[in-house]
């Protein structure tokens, strides 16, 4: 790698694995620890990270830093947490409204991943930050510029809003009470926001705890008009108890967890904890979003979401946190098989039933992948591609595995190898190269980059992947070396990033076995409610699989 490529990879690794150490970075990137320390020092000088003992951590998101420099934020950390989770209400292709408040402005970096948004705003700085992403259409509402130069107000902008069809309005105010609702400091601002909300199908309020109990001059949204309400964990206990009795979907954004409270309708209420594998992996994010949708439909579940961060140590801390919150059931999504036994012991001692997602845990109900069959489908597809395009021959078989997941999940790799050999015949062991994918695209990219450089003159690399992040990492490595056409890759999961790649003409990721993580939530909720009601349940429930490629992708995932 060039110095630039190596440092870019370091930043990506730190996003995906915040606790990664200098020694591990040096091993992955095949350079000395001294070189890594020099890289970290240079990146620190560029204000992209901060050195800590043994490694480094990323600094805050650049856009958030710009927001803070422009106008210092009161309760800044809480505002950022609220904005991060409220951004989950955005959907590709949406038309949304974002008011000029500082809390809503903090959403800007968290909607980067979405495509083809139309964003209407009266915030001048919000509009400026949004236009940095050319994929979105930004409409600035006209009017009189307010005294601090941050927003437009007044009736001049109301005409712009009358004929718009907005999916979601994201708003804040100077205060909120259950009796009065959201309020603003001036009548002009309140009138403009009322017009905004009148054109929106859904209203999402972002209100940090500093504003709870305060009342501004002019109300603009009653609690009955608000569909989703986000605040932070410093909200008063009495306020939380009263909000739980309303019909508003109420979200409390803590430092390490987010807790959702569904509208009250007299049913027995349950609290379910979801310890997600990682909020940096597209597949895991889709699982969590599907679960949140299912919870909203159930109307009698409070959901506590936490991030295991691909870290066994963090997963143990999350387990303790969920036990302290007195959850009724836990859905555990954790990659390290050895740590799962310790986590399960904690929950068993607390008398909390567990559903294990994709990684089996002794004593828990299993839900997820039929690993061998899913792998076999991808292996066969790769074999058929190799026969058709490479006359059944290849120089190396790169196997991207994840040893931490254990033998049962390892059957996913075994199935791929067996499926491939069903089509091309036995593969000589000398042709196989097993690499640890680390369960992330960045680690895979570094590992495959090193591997491809070891075999100059070889031009056909068949690649089997533990998951789609590994598949994407392998493709990035081949692109960086200018040998993209020398690889043929299959994935596991068919997540959003890989589906985008499969749709590209002549992509070298030929397909991926679909697990359909967006559908996990509904099935997980059905299993959870059966367990909580004491009804019989199978010890293992498997999802149905299909291999997604360019020929059938629109059948299962129609293009938007």
Strand content is 15-25%
Q: How does the overall form come out from the CA principal axes? A: globular
Spatial order of the strands forming the largest sheet: 5-4-3-8-11-13-14-15-17-16-18-19-20-26
CATH class of the domain at 72-221: Alpha Beta
Q: Classify the fold: give the CATH topology of the domain at 72-221.
A: Rossmann fold
Can you give the helix content as a percent range?
A: 25-40%
The biggest beta sheet reads: 14 strands, mixed
Number of helices: 20
- Overall average pLDDT: 88
Supply the helix-strand structural class. alpha/beta
The tally of strands reads: 27
CATH architecture of the domain at 72-221: 3-Layer(aba) Sandwich
Low-confidence stretches: none
- Structural Rg: 25 Å
Span from first to last CA?
36 Å
Report on this model:
Among the domains are: 3-59, Orthogonal Bundle (Arc Repressor Mutant, subunit A); 72-221, Rossmann fold, CATH 3.40.50.1360; 371-514, Rossmann fold (3-Layer(aba) Sandwich). The two termini are 36 Å apart. It is α/β, with parallel strands linked by helices and 560 residues long.
């Amino acid at each position: 790698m060039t110095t630039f490529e190596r440092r870019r990879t370091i930043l990506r690794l730190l996003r995906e694995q915040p606790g990664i150490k200098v020694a591990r970075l040096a091993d992955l990137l095949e350079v000395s620890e001294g070189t890594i320390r020099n890289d970290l020092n240079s990146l620190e000088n560029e204000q992209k990270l901060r050195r800590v003992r043994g490694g480094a951590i990323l600094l805050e998101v650049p856009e958030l830093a710009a927001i803070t420099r422009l106008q210092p934020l009161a309760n800044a950390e809480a505002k950022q947490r609220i904005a991060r989770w409220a951004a989950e209400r955005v959907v590709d292709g949406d038309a949304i409204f974002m008011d000029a408040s500082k809390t809503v402005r903090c959403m800007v970096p968290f909607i980067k991943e979405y495509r083809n948004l139309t964003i209407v705003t009266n915030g001048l700085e919000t509009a400026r930050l949004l236009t940095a992403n050319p994929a979105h259409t930004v409409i600035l509402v006209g009017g009189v510029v307010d005294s601090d130069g941050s927003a437009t107000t007044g009736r001049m902008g109301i005409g712009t809003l009358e004929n718009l069809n907005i999916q979601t309005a994201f708003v804040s105010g100077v205060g909120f009470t259950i009796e009065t609702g959201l309020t603003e400091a001036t009548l002009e601002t309140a009138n403009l926001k009322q017009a905004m909300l009148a054109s929106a199908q859904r209203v999402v309020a972002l209100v940090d705890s500093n504003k709870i109990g305060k009342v501004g001059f002019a109300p603009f949204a009653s609690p009955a008009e608000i569909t989703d309400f986000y605040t932070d964990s410093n909200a008063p206990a009495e306020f939380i108890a009263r909000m739980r009795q309303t019909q508003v979907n109420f979200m409390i954004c803590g430092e390490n967890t987010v807790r959702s409270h569904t509208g009250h309708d007299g049913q027995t209420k349950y609290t379910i904890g979801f310890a997600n594998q990682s909020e940096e992996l597209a597949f895991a994010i889709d699982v969590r979003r599907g679960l949140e949708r299912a919870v909203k439909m159930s109307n009698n579940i409070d959901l506590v979401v936490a991030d295991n961060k691909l870290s066994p140590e963090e997963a143990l801390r999350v387990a303790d946190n969920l036990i302290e919150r007195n959850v009724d059931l836990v859905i555990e999504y954790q990659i390290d098989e050895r740590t799962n036994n310790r986590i399960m012991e904690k929950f068993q001692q607390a008398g909390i039933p567990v559903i294990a997602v994709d990684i089996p845990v002794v004593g828990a109900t299993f839900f997820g992948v039929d690993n061998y069959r899913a792998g076999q489908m991808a292996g066969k597809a790769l074999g058929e591609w190799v026969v058709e395009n490479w006359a059944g021959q290849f120089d190396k078989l790169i196997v991207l595995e994840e040893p931490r997941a254990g033998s049962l999940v390892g059957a996913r790799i075994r199935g791929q190898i067996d499926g491939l050999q069903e089509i091309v015949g036995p593969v000589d062991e000398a042709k196989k190269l097993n690499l640890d994918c680390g369960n992330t695209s960045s680690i895979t990219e570094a590992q495959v980059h090193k591997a491809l450089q070891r075999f100059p003159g070889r031009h056909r690399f068949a690649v089997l992947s533990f998951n789609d992040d590994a598949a994407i990492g392998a493709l990035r490595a081949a692109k960086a070396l200018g040998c993209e056409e020398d690889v043929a890759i299959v994935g596991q999961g068919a997540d959003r990033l890989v589906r985008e790649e499969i749709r590209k003409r002549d992509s070298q990721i030929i397909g991926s076995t679909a697990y359909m993580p967006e559908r996990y939530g509904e099935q997980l909720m059905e299993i959870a409610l059966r367990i909580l009601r004491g009804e019989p349940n199978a010890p293992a429930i498997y999802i149905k699989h299909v291999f997604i490629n360019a020929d059938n992708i629109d059948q299962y995932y129609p293009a938007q």
